[in-house]
Amino acid sequence: MTIEEIVRQMLRASRWLWLHAEDYGMDQDRLYVCGHSAGGHLTAMMMAALWPVFDPRLPKDLWKGGLAISGLYDLRPLVHVDWLQPDLRLDEETALRLSPAFLPPATRAPVMTCVGGAESSEFKRQNALLAERWRGVFAGDIALPGREPLLGDGRARGPAERALSGRAAPDETRPMKQYLEPGRYIDSAHPQVAAFARAQARGADDRERAVALYYAVRDGIRYNPFLDFSDEAVFRASDVLAAGQGFCVGKAALLAACARAVGIPARVGFADVKNHLTTPALRARMGTDLFVYHGYTELFLAGRWVKATPAFNRELCERFRVRPLEFDGREDSIFHPFDEDNRRHMEYVRERGTFADVPAAEIQQAFREHYPPLYALGREAAKERFG
To answer: DSSP 3-state assignment of 116?
Structure first.
């Protein structure tokens, strides 16, 4: 049985429990979830579940809180343990999709964690990773110095637990400064990017400056999906600024770079979305309305990460009769599900996580696989017109 199927079983079990809680003398409004090790992973997955999407009868806060004990929240290291694959059957894509650290919590319900002091460094990394990624709902960590929760100091670990070598993925172990440093694509130290950011970042505090930068990038850089995706310049902030146009990933990188240039921690995130109102020309080139690696920016404001999506400039939105996305620096700003005529517009179908810099090579590979005709246009893409 795969991990994915186990998660599905937990979703079905949670639904059954909520629907039948009163039959067994339980209060539907006081249900909490807790688990250890693999159960810690499942606890976090339940807290990330979109319950009304799974079943319209369910409330979005089905679980009122969660406690994850020595859990695994980033499954990617397990992909590289060959002898575990017959049991786990994980690939990079599935591991990322089933890693709660790279999924947003579904509600504001509190989540707590704990890990024993005698646990391996990898379990401690996993614990710290969830705390950082879920900062907005993280209610604290229960310290257990010198202990291995629920296992005791003398019990041998299971094979999946022993497989975690303690080597951490680079992005998750570096401190917050990684979201302030210039990157290869989020090149916040580039003179033109820095000058643009200083000129546009008007306001009395970080939130106001972030909002000003959002609108400067949203409306000052024209959205254009007909680009040469084999050219890494389309992913780099300074090149997008110089061109005055870009697609969602390039514009997200530019907003992140501008934020970093004025001292606001920023990173980029990605999701697969369905754009039901794509143009016939673009759909013909793509062969689908599924946009993989749609890019957005996350800005660290008032102690938490806030999503901002500067892709579609106002003029383009008005032409397509789509409400332009506003951003106030307090709430997430993601695409509206419907346009001004109440037609289905944008649908998020899969989160791909957040990154300190644009994973351009991964995105290029995904585009080659999903959109061969569009990717093959190369420089000829400039002859196409969007909108």
So the answer is: strand
pLDDT number for residue 287: 67
What is the 3-state composition of the chain as percent helix, strand, coil, each rounded to the nearest 5?
A: 45, 15, 40
CA 313 to chain centre: 22
- Tens of pLDDT, residues 167-221: 334 344 345 888 999 999 999 999 999 999 999 999 999 999 999 999 999 999 9
pLDDT of residue 260: 96
Residue-level pLDDT at 345: 52
Cβ neighbourhood burial of 79 (10 Å; 0-12, 13-18, 19+):
middle
List residues bridging with 268 in a β-sheet: 297, 355
Q: Which residues contact 153 (CB under 8 A, 6 or more apart)?
A: 118, 146, 147
* Residue 342: other Cβ atoms inside 10 A: 7
- 363 and 278 Cβ atoms separated by less than 8 Å: no
Q: What is the DSSP string of 224-244?
A: ---S-TTSGGGG-HHHHHHHT
**What are the tokens at 354?**
């957040």
Q: Which residues in the chain land under pLDDT 50?
A: 150-174, 276-277, 337-339, 344
Q: Please list the alpha-helical segments (H only) found in 21-154.
A: 38-47, 51-54, 85-88, 92-97, 121-133
Q: Which residue type is seen at 275? A: N
